[in-house]
Amino acid sequence: VKKGYGYYVSLLTEKANGMYIYSGLPDSLPADQIELKLILDGFCVVFNHPKFGLVTCGGGLSGIDKYYLPTNFVYAQPALGSGNLIINKNCIIIYNSSIDQYTRSGLSEIIQRSARMLADIDSSISILTINTRATKLNVAANDSIAKTVNHAMQKIADGEIETINTQSLLDLYKTVDWNSEQKQQEIIELLNAKQQIMASFLSEIGVKNFTEKKERLITDEVTADDQLLTINVEDMVNYRRNGIDKINKMFN
Questions:
Q1: In this structure, are residues 173 and 145 in contact, taking their beta carbons and an 8 Å threshold?
Q2: What span, in angstroms and rounded, lies between the C-alpha atoms of 193 and 117?
Q3: Which residues share a beta bridge with 76?
Q4: Is the Cβ–Cβ distance between 62 and 70 less than 8 Å?
Q5: If DSSP codes are grouped into helix, strand and coil, which group holds residue 28?
Q6: Parallel, antiparallel, or unpaired: how do β-strands 136-140 and 60-62 relate?
Q7: CA-CA 20 to 30 A from 23: which of 102, 127, 175, 192?
Q8: What is the DSSP letter of 97?
Q9: What's 68's DSSP letter?
Q10: 53 Rama sector, left if φ>0, alpha if ψ -120 to 50, beta otherwise
Q11: What is residue 87's DSSP assignment?
């Protein structure tokens, strides 16, 4: 689950990172640096560095105005050095969305929550898939009998013939049902749940994704889906545009 969580955090972050296209950016300010900070931190501060030009970097926000919004940005970075900037005076802050003005979490929480659920489902699918290989479970009364049966099973798996010579084997060994149709149905349900979680995540970031293939989708269904996607991304689009407008105005 831990490895799967890390995998899905990277995968979902990559999907979210390609949502918006910027034009006219200087070489010192890559679009992916802006987006990664908006996605993972909920905000991105852009300022004019005396050596490198327009840049962004991680840092902390402090101070409050009349609406409890931050007024200062403090940064410390090996190449850029350190500084204490005043927002809207010598730096501009872009927010990922309206709520990120206060929570400043970006899409990191939905990425982490979705990644955890997907990793859990993958782990469960893996366990159930392995269990489908065994129709019967071997049960032995002691370690000696267990080793004898395991050795015989390995020989059979390797395509060899093995004869067990144990007088009391019948009394000390038995098999019980292990696999069932219910486990196979559980795998299907987990696969469907995984698809739904991924579709839900994509919908939250504004990507259309039909999880159920139907012969025909009526106009109202398509329109409703488009409206939901618009609601989910309109706020993020507007706050990016507002931030970029301020950058263009301050730094020409």
A1: yes
A2: 9
A3: 82
A4: yes
A5: coil
A6: unpaired
A7: 102
A8: S
A9: S
A10: left
A11: B
